[in-house]
User: Fold these one by one.
Assistant:
Number 1:
Amino acid sequence: MSSLSLIRVKIYKTVARQLHGVVPCWVCGGHVAFADATLEHIQPQSEGGSGHQDNLAISHDACNHQRHAKAPVV
Ligand SMILES: [Zn+2]
């Protein structure tokens, strides 16, 4: 297990405890099940964002990919 995975678990559990079991997606705002949870860099690493916990947020796996895929607007 990578250190990022450990941070993901830590952040997920922290948010779930603070919000009584609800972990909102940083991208769409919906609840994220742990199985779907990925870590999103609030400020992209390509723009100098750090890998520190303060720059990381939980999002859906699908939302995370959508945000980076630059899919054409339908
Ligand atoms: Zn989402």
Number 2:
Amino acid sequence: MITLNDVKKNPQILEFINQTEQAMEALRYTNHGLRHSEVVSQRVLEISTAIGLDEREGELAAIAGFCHDMGNFMTRTLHHHFGGLLFGQVFTGQFEPRELAMIIQAISNHDKYEMNFVHNVSALVVLADKSDVHRSRVAKQSMEETKSDIHDRVNYATTESAVKVDKKEKRITLTLKIDTKFCPIIEYFEIFTERMIFCRKAAKFLGYNFGLVINDFQLL
Ligand SMILES: [Fe+2]
Ligand SMILES: [Fe+2]
């Protein structure tokens, strides 16, 4: 049985992620490399444990979370589909067929307009991915450059980012601290509204409401 650790140590997977990191840096995108992969897979595990999902289901989602952006080195616009196919090529015959298909579906689904949840694995990946906004995602560059791009500004202004689960109240809440000296909160919504809608859909699939708290204000 392939574990999360096996996937994290797989040289081919690590090279896809490494080349994705380089490709995104060349495009001056926020981090889509190892940092983001680690954060998403860790966040998946935290959420799945907190809501009490089956351990293997959580592990499959963490695997998909670790690999979800690795197709970016081939193409940005279709990276989700290519990532899913690449995963299948590397691991064909090594997972139980149902598990492999679930992981491929979760990777391929995470950035689609027709995003649809058919199992918990894909819902967990979307929640963990779309909630990863943080200063540490901004590629190192001058402050002037950071200020010139809205994605960089919003990520840089986000000094704290955490997903909290309230099992009793059935709420999954993204809590952010945004430095408003650096960017006004409206800019967050300018680029993240769609992602928050994806999070709400994913939480709903898991039987939870999605909450958003920014600078101690409950917005959702
Ligand atoms: Fe992505
Ligand atoms: Fe991502």
